[in-house]
Design a protein that fits this description.
The chain contains seven helices and seven strands. The protein is an alpha/beta fold. Strands 3-2-1-4-5-7-6 form a seven-stranded mixed β-sheet, with helices on both faces. The longest helix has 18 residues.
């Protein structure tokens, strides 16, 4: 039988999950602050950026940048390029903008992956950390992103499962799902890297071949 205490905990958990997906208001700001300062989150984001091999003149996009930890690391590397970011949470846009206020080549936009703004010239690299699972029709979204990349441009999709009881097997399955989606979207030269956290983090990297998707 479900007790009142159990029901209350479940409602609180559902509210926390909703805030993590789309942070809003004071609670959303607190979620962003927690994400920015949790050591494992910082380690995961900085590790993911390192795998993209960002060069000083690169034009890079992060989708779902949250509090802007990876944006700051991208800006530190793309010193003569441009770092773009989109997030569907206005609270996260404000928080990330404050964190990266001194970075003049950072451009953050309140937008969703299904309604991408213009980024001008082709991009060199794209990053998405723990956000693909929330995208509508992710394969189609990946095809659209591939159109934004220059030939041989790179993409990195990162997953650290946060479901209760997540294990190494959960991460392995998540990585395979990302690989399947990237392959269906036309990306090539896939590889998987793993960061040993609890649960492990998988980063699936792929390349845009010369031909654009039809």
């Amino acid at each position: 039988m479900q007790t009142a205490g159990t029901s209350l905990k479940q409602r609180a958990l559902r509210k926390l999950v909703r805030q993590a997906h789309h942070p809003r208001g004071i609670a959303g700001w607190a979620i962003g602050w927690m994400f920015a300062h949790r050591p494992s989150n910082r380690k995961r984001n900085i590790w993911a950026v390192s795998l993209l091999d960002v060069q000083p003149t690169d034009r890079v996009l992060e989708i779902g940048f949250g509090p802007g930890v990876a944006i700051a690391e991208l800006a530190r590397r793309a010193t003569r390029g441009h770092v773009f970011g989109i997030d569907h949470s206005q609270a996260m846009v404000r928080q990330a903008a404050r964190r990266n206020a001194a970075a003049v080549r950072v451009h953050l936009t309140h937008a969703s992956v299904e309604q991408l703004p213009s980024f001008g010239d082709p991009l060199d690299a794209i990053l998405a950390v723990n956000s693909v699972g929330f995208w509508p029709d992710p394969v189609e979204r990946l095809r659209e992103l591939r159109r934004l990349l220059r030939p041989a441009g790179r993409i990195a999709l990162v997953s650290q499962p946060r479901c209760p009881g997540a294990t190494r097997d959960t991460t392995t399955r998540a990585a395979q799902e990302l690989q399947d989606m990237l392959t269906e979207a036309g990306f090539t030269r896939l590889r998987v890297e793993t960061l040993e956290l609890d649960p492990p983090v998988a980063c699936v990297l792929a390349t845009n071949p010369t031909g654009l998707p039809s």
